[in-house]
Design a protein that fits this description.
This protein is mainly beta and 405 residues long. Helix content is 10%, strand content 36%. The protein is built from 5 helices and 25 strands. A hairpin with a 2-residue loop joins β23 and β24. The radius of gyration is 25 Å and the shape is elongated.
Length: 405
């Protein structure tokens, strides 16, 4: 097996986006629009105060992060839910407003475990205005340059870094786990002039034990932080609620996760096989890069091996590998080899939507006594690597991983 090239992506300002239904959101003829290609990225996780968030549009369909021009975007209407504000769209003024106290709860949607990372057509609009409690807000990236709203599939997307400022939270990015985190209270206020002070702010600190997560349950002591509300400075005690995240710490077993059988079914569906065509070697739950995943492995009757890594919470396929372990090349590897273009064509047939422009390399090499083509394709947020028999065109192996891993 070859050593794959590591693709390093610089993640700039992170962006939270808002979702409006297509019926609510129609671009006006006067809007200044730029059509762009962005990357729909279901593999990116968003954690707010220790809780992994899933975003839904007003119709209950899951909406995923989008990466464009080095910036990660997430939904605006969903951000309104997190901020406890109503989100409204005014077509006449092209204005999205977040205001007041939210009058209805969050949308209960159905998780989407089938959408893969892919390139999508989006629109950057300089004509959309965003207000928060009547104040017009502008958004900038980490370099101070203006970042405009991004529109995709009836949803407005705005910068996570800027929204983090609106929510008074610190934004951070973990490339190893593809996780954007918003946390903290943005500095908070210290009050010294009061008749009494609640001790809740101190007890709230016990919620930090939830961060250990090793036993998970210890995080529950963070609930005592709620008593902080009774004191003038006790509001900081609310951070004790983060102790609840201890339940989702490394001590968690299966709460809120898909089952091993569901993970098997997802892997089989992706491979285009049925359960009676394979023999399972394993399908077990483990931790990898800070998240729980199912490691699923199975063989077919002709000794082809499949390995899948599946997100145990969302069911998303994070990576998969295929090897013809017992593949035997022709006894006499002589004659005419397939062309380089043919090898590329074979590889592209396995990557729906990819074109010649997505091929990063294609070269001949000897491996285990056979001549083969090694083809690398980058499409969306995924890297695809193929080993193809140079004489028969048989795919000996293929490996798919997120470029953020």
């Amino acid at each position: 097996m070859k050593v794959k090239n590591t693709l390093v992506k610089r993640i700039g300002a992170l962006v939270l986006c808002g979702t409006l239904t297509a019926g609510m959101f129609l671009m006006s003829a006067s809007a200044v629009n730029t059509n762009v290609t962005a990357q729909l990225s279901p593999n990116i996780n968003v954690v707010v105060d220790g809780t992994t968030r899933t975003f839904y549009n007003a119709g209950g369909s899951e909406v995923h992060p989008i990466v464009y021009n080095g910036t990660t975007y997430l939904p605006l209407r969903a951000i309104g839910e997190l901020m406890g504000k109503n989100v409204n769209w005014d077509q006449s003024s092209m204005t999205a407003s977040l205001s007041g106290t939210r009058t209805n709860g969050g949308v209960a949607g159905t998780p989407d475990n089938t959408t893969a990372a892919q390139n999508v057509a989006a629109v950057v609009s300089t004509d959309i205005t965003v207000t928060v409690d009547g104040v017009v807000r502008a958004f900038t990236n980490e370099n101070g340059s203006t970042v405009y709203p991004l529109v995709y599939n009836g949803s407005i997307y705005l910068p996570l870094r800027a929204i983090g400022n609106l929510m008074g939270k610190t934004v951070s990015w973990d490339g190893a786990t593809s996780t954007a985190t918003l946390s903290g209270s943005g500095g908070g206020l210290v009050i010294t002039d009061a008749d009494s002070f609640g001790n809740g702010s101190n007890t709230g600190n016990t919620g930090n034990t939830g961060n250990t997560g090793n036993t998970g349950n210890t995080g529950n002591t963070g609930n005592t932080g709620n008593t902080g509300n009774t004191g003038n400075t006790g509001n900081t005690g609310n951070t004790g609620n983060t102790g609840n995240t201890g339940n989702t710490g490394f001590g968690q077993t299966t709460t809120g996760l898909i089952t091993a059988d569901q993970a098997k079914s997802k892997a089989l569906a992706h491979a285009g096989l049925s359960s009676n065509q394979v023999s399972f070697v394993r399908a077990y739950l483990e931790w990898d890069d800070g998240r729980q995943v199912y490691d699923v492995e199975f063989y077919t009757s002709d000794y082809k091996e499949y390995d899948y890594e599946i997100d145990a919470r969302t069911g998303a396929i994070l990576s998969f590998d295929y090897d013809a372990d017992y593949y035997t090349p022709p006894a006499n590897q002589t004659g005419t080899t397939i062309t380089r273009d043919k090898a590329i064509s074979i590889a592209l047939s396995y990557v729906s939507g990819a074109t010649q422009s997505n091929v990063r390399s294609c070269k001949q090499d000897w491996d285990d006594g056979r001549l083969e083509y090694e083809v690398e394709i980058i499409y969306g947020t995924m890297e695809y690597d193929f080993e193809i028999d140079a004489y028969t065109g048989t795919v000996i192996s293929r490996d798919v991983d997120s470029i953020y891993d």
